[in-house]
Write a structure and sequence with these properties.
It contains eight helices and nine strands. The protein has 242 residues and is an alpha/beta fold. Strands 1, 2, 3, 4, 5, 6, 7, 8 and 9 form a nine-stranded mixed β-sheet that branches.
Length: 242
């Protein structure tokens, strides 16, 4: 069973196209878990219009990006779990190719390549990752300057359960999962497979493809915060093995 976990917030503008690109490659037993962060636009109406039993839609009070993804992941039931943004477009064979790659390589966490596009799906950069893909970087390099991208990731349930619940104060769910995976698990990268059109527009909340505007003190503090929680989670992992 495959779970695709999507976090939404006022994403009705591009949501229909993204959901359609996911459902067309899912089996009847798979699920698309959508966690909505108190949207005030027509997000709920867009989802309801599909009337698809594979969609499980949850609406709740405002949680923020990381907690919204956490909520979606907590509701998932699949053995392989994908992360999805609300405004991208997936290639028709993304799920099939990534699932096969994960199983063949016996990986716990994998990532495909993508292309950056604008709001009209005009290509900004393709491929997005060339020499900077995650597996060519050490754990420390990715902690300093993250190359993991959530919308390109898939993981086994064992990894998901190890990273839940998220630590308090987490801003980037994909960085947390990816760093834990790089530390403890077998990771793989589909360097030549562009399987996502990663849309960048005026309402985009992440800094991928652009420069962060967070002050330097916050970037240092946040990385120390993440690392400390990774150490604590790793100690808990070791304790369970004894």
């Amino acid at each position: 069973m495959i779970s695709v976990c999507m976090a939404t917030y006022n994403g009705a503008r591009f949501l229909q196209e993204q959901i359609a690109s996911i459902l067309c490659q899912m089996d009847a037993a798979d699920e698309l878990v959508i966690s909505d962060d108190a949207s005030t636009d027509k997000t709920a109406e867009v989802v309801a219009a599909f009337a698809d039993p594979r969609i499980r839609f949850f609406s709740h009070e405002r949680l923020g990006v990381a907690r919204n993804f956490e909520y979606a992941l907590q509701q998932s039931r699949g053995e392989i779990v994908f992360l999805s943004d609300q405004d991208d477009v997936w290639m028709p064979d993304k799920i099939q190719k990534m699932t096969a790659f994960m199983q063949t390589g016996h990986y716990d966490c994998i990532m495909c390549n993508c292309r950056l596009v604008d709001s009209r799906m005009q290509v900004i950069k393709s491929p997005h990752f060339d020499t900077a893909w995650p597996m060519k970087r050490s754990f420390w390099h990715n902690l300093y300057n993250n190359a993991w991208l959530g919308c390109c990731m898939a993981m086994r349930r064992e990894l998901l359960e190890a990273t839940l619940p998220f630590p308090k104060g987490l801003a980037a769910h994909d960085l947390w999962i990816a760093l834990y995976a790089q530390w403890h698990c077998r990771c793989g990268y589909m360097e030549d497979e562009i399987l996502v059109s990663y849309r960048r527009h005026e309402a985009t909340v992440s800094f991928t493809g652009s420069k962060s505007n967070n002050p330097i003190w916050f970037r240092i503090y946040y990385r120390v915060h993440i690392f400390c929680h990774l150490v604590l989670r790793s100690m808990r992992r070791q304790g369970k093995k004894r």
